C-alpha cells in the first residue's frame, strides 16, 4: 500500500479524470503521429546544448550533388516562368518529359523500387533550387515527394502494393496526386462527407468484397493530370462484411483515375500560378479491398497514416520553397538596392532601406538554418510532427514578410509585370504556400503549442494516458508516478526560471561558442520561463487551455522562436563561426528575443488566473519586456551583407539556380558586378564633383579605361531599371493588330455621349 498514492494522488486522479475533456479520434491520431526531438528538450526548460551541437549537419552525397548540378540545372534551363504563367499556362512538354525521365517524381522512393533514394536534405535542396527558377516546376516536383501515394505506400503499403505501384511512380508512368480537401472539410478533416461503403461488387470480371466510393475533392495539386489518385474518405460497413463495427473512420486508398465513375474536373487557377490543380469526383466507384493502402487491416487508420506522413513532408517542401524565396529576395533586393540610385546615392545607403533589407537578410539566414536543422533530424530518421508544423507555419509567414519588403524596395520595378520582372510571380504565390498543408491560423492557434504541450512535455502525455486508462487501479498507479515526477520537475523549473530571469541569464548553461555564448544563455533562460509558464497555464486552465486560442498561439510563438533561434546558433557553429555572418546571427537573436519577451508579457497580461499571473511576472519578468530588437548598428551591418559581393553574401544565398540567360536576374547580376567593380571610379567622380565621365577623362581625373568601365556599369543599370511594355493587342483581344487605340476610345466616348 502507498499512502501517497491512495490518500493524495487518488482524489487528484478522480478529479482530473472527470475534468479531462474528451479527445476526438482525429485529435488522438494526430498526437500519436510522428515523434518529438529537440522540441522535447526545449519543453524541459533546461535544453542540453551538447545534444544539439552533436547533431550531424545535413550533407549531400556525391550522387545527390551530381543530380543537383546536372539534371536539376538542365531542368532549370528549360524553364521560363513568364512563359509558363502567361503564355503556355503549363510547364512545356519537354520539361514534363525530362522530369519523368530523370525520376524527379521518385526522389524519395528507394532504389530497390526504381527511385532515386535521396535523403530528405537532397529533396529539400532540389526544391530550393527549382523554386528560385520556377515555382510551377518546384510545386510540380515537390508534391509527389511529399504527402501523397508514394510516401504512404513506402510507410504503410503492403509488399504487393509497393512492388506494383512504386516503380511506376518512380519512372513517371503514373502521375500521383492526393485528394484530402473537400468543400465541406478543409482543416477539419473529420467533417468530410466522402464515403466508402463496404459491399460486394464486380472488379475485373470477379465478384469481390470492396468499397463503393463517392467523393468530391478540390484544390488537388496535379489532380488534372493525375493517373493515380490517393484518396481519403470515411469507411462504413453497414452489412458487417468485415467486422461488427459499422463506422470505421477515415481510410486512404489508391484510385487509378481510369476506373468507371472517376471524374477529373477542370483546372483551378491558384493565384495565377500554373501548376496543375483542380477538383475531382467519384460516383459509385468500386475498388477491391487491396486498393486500401496497407490492405484491409488499415481500414480506419487513414488519419494517423496521413499525420505521420505529414510530420515529415511538412518539414521539407514548403520550408524549402520559403527559405529559397527569402534567399532569392536577399540576393535580388540587395543587388537592386546597391545599383539603384536616388538623390545621387545608392538607395541601399538610406537607413529606411537598410531596415527592411536587414530583415530580408536576417530572415534568409534564419530560415535556411532551420531548414537544414530540420533536414538533419529527418536524415536521422526522426519525424518531428511539432517541428514540422513550426517550420511550415513560420517559413511561409516570414516569406510573406520578406517578399513584401522586397517589393517595397524594388518599387515600380517589381510592380510592372513582364518577362523582366523577377519578383511578381513569387509575390502572387505567397498566399498559396500559406494556405496549403494546414492553414497557418489553425497551426499557430491550435497545433504548435496545443499538440506540443502534450507530445513534447516530459510528463503530460503519460498523465493523460493514465487518466484515460480503462483499468482504474492500473491508471492510478501510472498517474501517481507521472504526477509526482511532474510536481518535482515543476519546482525545479520554478527555481531555475526565477534564478535565470533575475540574473538576466548570466549563469544559465551554455556551451563555449565564442561570441555566441551569450545567446545560448538567453535561450536557456527563456526555455526555463516557457516551461514554467506552460505548466502553470496547464495547471490553472486544464483542458480549457485549448479553447484559449490566443494564449495557445503566444505559447506556440515562444516555442517556435526557441527552435528557430536554436537552428541559427547551430548553423553558426556548423559553418565554422564565420565572423562576417555574425551580424545576421545578431539580428536573428535580437529579433527573436524581442518576440519572446513580448509574448511572455502578453501571456502574463491575459492569463485568467490573476494570482498565478502576478507570481509568474515576479519570477520571470519583474521588469517587463526589455528587449527592443536589433540596434541600428546591427541593422546596418546585417544590411551590408547583401549590398556588396562577398563570401558572406554567397553563403546566405547558396543553392539557388544560376542559369545564365538574358532574363531579369542575369541583367541584375551583371549590373551588380559592374557597379561594385566601378565603385572606386564613381567615388573619384563624386570627389571631383563631375558627372560626365568623358569630361573627367579630359581633366585627368580618371583614365579612358576607367571611364568606359563606368559607362558599362551605367548601361547595365539602365537595362535593369527598364520595365516591360506591351502593344494593346498583345494584352486584349478587343484591339486588332495595328488598331488606333486613341481613335477607339474617342469613338467609344462619342457613342456614349450620343446615347
From TrEMBL:
Instruction: Name the EC number(s).
Output: 1.3.8.7, 1.3.8.8
Instruction: Name the InterPro entries on file.
Output: Acyl-CoA_dehydrogenase, Acyl-CoA_Oxase/DH_mid-dom_sf, AcylCo_DH-like_C, AcylCo_DH/oxidase_C, AcylCoA_DH/ox_N, AcylCoA_DH/ox_N_sf, AcylCoA_DH/oxidase_NM_dom_sf, FadE_C
Reaction catalysis annotation: a long-chain 2,3-saturated fatty acyl-CoA + oxidized [electron-transfer flavoprotein] + H(+) = a long-chain (2E)-enoyl-CoA + reduced [electron-transfer flavoprotein]; a medium-chain 2,3-saturated fatty acyl-CoA + oxidized [electron-transfer flavoprotein] + H(+) = a medium-chain (2E)-enoyl-CoA + reduced [electron-transfer flavoprotein]
Q: What is one term from the GO cellular component aspect held by the record?
A: cytoplasm
The lineage's top-level taxon is Bacteria
The Gene Ontology terms for molecular function here are: flavin adenine dinucleotide binding; long-chain fatty acyl-CoA dehydrogenase activity; medium-chain fatty acyl-CoA dehydrogenase activity
UniProt domain Acyl-CoA dehydrogenase C-terminal bacterial-type: residue ranges = 454-726
Pathway membership, UniProt: Lipid metabolism; fatty acid beta-oxidation
Enumerate the Pfam families for this protein: ACDH_C, Acyl-CoA_dh_1, Acyl-CoA_dh_N
- What's an example GO BP annotation here? fatty acid beta-oxidation using acyl-CoA dehydrogenase
Q: Which UniProt keywords apply?
A: FAD, Fatty acid metabolism, Flavoprotein, Lipid metabolism, Oxidoreductase
Q: Which cofactor does the UniProt annotation name?
A: FAD
Acyl-CoA dehydrogenase/oxidase N-terminal domain ranges (all copies): 79-172
**Top EC class of this enzyme:** oxidoreductase
Record carries keyword Oxidoreductase: yes
List each copy of the Acyl-CoA dehydrogenase/oxidase C-terminal domain by range.
300-447
Protein's UniProt keywords contain Lipid metabolism: yes
Q: Which family does the record assign?
A: Belongs to the acyl-CoA dehydrogenase family.
Concerning PANTHER family, the annotation shows: ACYL-COENZYME A DEHYDROGENASE, MEDIUM-CHAIN SPECIFIC ACYL-COA DEHYDROGENASE, MITOCHONDRIAL-RELATED
Name-wise, this protein is Acyl-coenzyme A dehydrogenase
Which gene carries the instructions for this protein?
A: fadE
Amino acid at each position: 500500500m502507498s499512502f501517497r498514492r491512495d490518500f493524495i494522488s487518488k482524489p487528484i486522479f478522480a478529479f482530473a479524470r472527470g475534468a479531462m475533456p474528451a479527445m476526438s479520434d482525429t485529435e488522438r491520431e494526430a498526437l500519436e503521429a510522428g515523434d518529438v526531438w529537440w522540441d522535447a528538450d526545449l519543453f524541459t526548460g533546461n535544453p542540453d546544448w551538447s545534444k544539439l551541437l552533436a547533431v550531424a549537419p545535413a550533407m549531400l552525397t556525391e550522387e545527390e550533388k551530381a543530380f543537383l548540378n546536372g539534371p536539376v540545372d538542365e531542368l532549370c534551363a528549360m524553364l521560363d516562368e513568364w512563359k509558363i504563367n502567361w503564355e503556355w499556362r503549363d510547364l512545356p512538354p519537354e520539361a514534363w518529359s525530362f522530369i519523368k525521365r530523370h525520376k524527379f517524381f521518385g526522389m524519395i522512393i528507394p532504389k530497390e523500387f526504381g527511385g532515386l533514394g535521396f535523403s530528405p536534405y537532397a529533396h529539400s535542396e532540389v526544391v530550393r533550387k527549382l523554386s528560385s527558377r520556377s515555382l510551377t516546376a518546384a510545386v510540380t516536383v515537390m508534391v509527389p515527394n511529399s504527402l501523397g501515394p508514394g510516401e504512404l505506400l513506402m510507410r504503410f503499403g503492403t509488399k504487393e502494393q509497393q512492388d506494383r505501384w512504386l516503380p511506376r511512380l518512380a519512372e513517371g508512368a503514373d502521375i500521383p496526386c492526393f485528394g484530402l480537401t473537400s468543400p465541406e472539410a478543409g482543416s477539419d478533416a473529420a467533417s468530410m462527407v466522402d464515403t466508402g461503403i463496404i459491399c460486394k461488387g464486380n472488379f475485373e470480371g470477379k465478384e469481390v468484397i470492396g468499397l463503393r466510393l463517392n467523393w468530391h475533392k478540390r484544390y488537388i495539386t496535379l489532380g488534372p493530370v493525375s493517373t493515380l489518385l490517393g484518396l481519403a474518405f470515411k469507411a462504413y460497413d453497414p452489412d458487417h462484411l468485415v467486422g461488427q463495427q459499422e463506422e470505421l473512420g477515415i481510410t486512404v486508398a489508391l484510385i487509378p483515375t481510369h476506373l468507371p465513375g472517376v471524374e477529373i474536373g477542370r483546372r483551378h487557377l491558384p493565384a495565377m500560378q500554373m501548376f496543375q490543380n483542380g477538383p475531382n469526383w467519384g460516383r459509385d466507384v468500386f475498388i477491391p479491398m487491396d486498393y486500401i493502402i496497407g490492405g484491409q487491416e488499415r481500414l480506419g487508420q487513414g488519419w494517423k497514416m496521413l499525420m505521420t506522413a505529414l510530420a515529415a513532408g511538412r518539414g521539407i517542401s514548403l520550408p524549402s520553397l520559403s527559405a529559397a524565396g527569402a534567399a532569392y529576395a536577399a540576393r535580388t533586393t540587395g543587388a537592386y538596392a546597391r545599383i539603384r540610385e536616388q538623390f545621387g546615392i545608392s538607395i541601399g545607403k538610406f537607413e529606411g532601406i537598410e531596415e527592411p533589407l536587414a530583415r530580408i537578410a536576417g530572415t534568409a539566414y534564419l530560415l535556411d538554418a532551420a531548414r537544414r536543422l530540420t533536414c538533419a533530424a529527418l536524415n536521422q530518421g526522426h519525424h518531428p510532427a511539432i517541428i514540422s508544423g513550426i517550420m511550415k507555419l513560420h517559413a511561409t509567414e516570414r516569406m510573406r514578410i520578406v517578399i513584401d519588403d522586397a517589393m517595397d524596395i524594388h518599387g515600380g520595378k517589381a510592380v510592372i509585370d513582364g518577362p523582366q520582372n523577377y519578383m511578381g510571380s513569387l509575390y502572387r504565390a505567397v498566399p498559396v504556400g500559406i494556405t496549403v498543408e494546414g492553414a497557418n491560423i489553425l497551426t499557430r492557434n491550435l497545433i504548435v503549442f496545443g499538440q506540443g504541450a502534450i507530445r513534447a512535455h516530459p510528463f503530460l502525455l503519460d498523465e493523460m494516458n493514465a487518466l484515460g486508462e480503462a483499468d482504474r487501479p492500473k491508471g492510478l498507479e501510472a498517474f501517481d508516478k507521472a504526477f509526482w515526477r511532474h510536481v518535482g520537475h515543476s519546482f525545479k523549473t520554478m527555481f531555475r526560471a526565477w534564478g535565470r530571469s533575475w540574473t538576466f541569464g548570466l549563469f544559465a548553461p551554455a556551451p563555449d561558442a565564442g561570441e555566441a555564448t551569450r545567446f545560448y544563455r538567453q535561450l536557456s533562460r527563456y526555455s526555463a520561463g516557457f516551461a514554467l509558464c506552460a505548466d502553470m497555464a496547464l495547471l490553472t486552465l486544464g483542458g480549457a487551455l485549448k479553447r484559449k486560442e490566443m494564449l495557445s498561439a503566444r505559447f506556440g510563438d515562444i516555442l517556435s522562436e526557441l527552435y528557430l533561434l536554436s537552428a541559427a546558433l547551430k548553423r553558426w557553429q556548423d559553418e565554422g563561426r564565420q565572423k562576417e555572418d555574425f551580424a545576421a546571427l545578431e539580428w536573428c537573436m535580437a529579433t527573436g528575443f524581442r518576440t519572446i519577451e513580448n509574448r511572455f508579457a502578453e501571456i502574463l497580461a491575459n492569463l485568467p488566473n490573476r494570482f498565478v499571473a502576478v507570481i509568474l511576472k515576479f519570477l520571470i519578468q519583474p521588469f517587463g519586456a526589455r528587449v527592443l530588437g536589433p540596434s541600428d548598428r546591427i541593422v546596418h551591418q546585417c544590411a551590408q551583407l547583401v549590398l556588396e559581393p562577398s563570401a558572406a553574401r554567397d553563403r546566405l544565398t547558396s543553392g539557388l539556380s544560376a542559369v545564365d540567360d538574358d532574363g531579369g536576374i542575369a541583367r541584375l547580376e551583371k549590373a551588380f558586378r559592374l557597379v561594385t567593380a566601378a565603385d572606386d571610379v564613381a567615388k573619384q567622380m563624386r570627389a571631383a564633383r563631375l558627372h560626365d565621365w568623358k569630361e573627367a577623362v579630359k581633366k585627368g581625373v580618371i583614365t579612358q579605361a576607367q571611364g568606359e568601365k563606368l559607362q558599362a556599369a551605367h548601361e547595365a543599370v539602365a537595362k535593369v531599371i527598364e520595365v516591360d511594355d506591351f502593344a494593346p493587342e498583345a494584352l486584349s483581344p478587343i484591339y486588332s493588330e495595328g488598331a488606333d487605340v486613341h481613335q477607339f476610345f474617342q469613338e467609344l466616348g462619342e457613342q456614349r455621349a450620343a446615347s
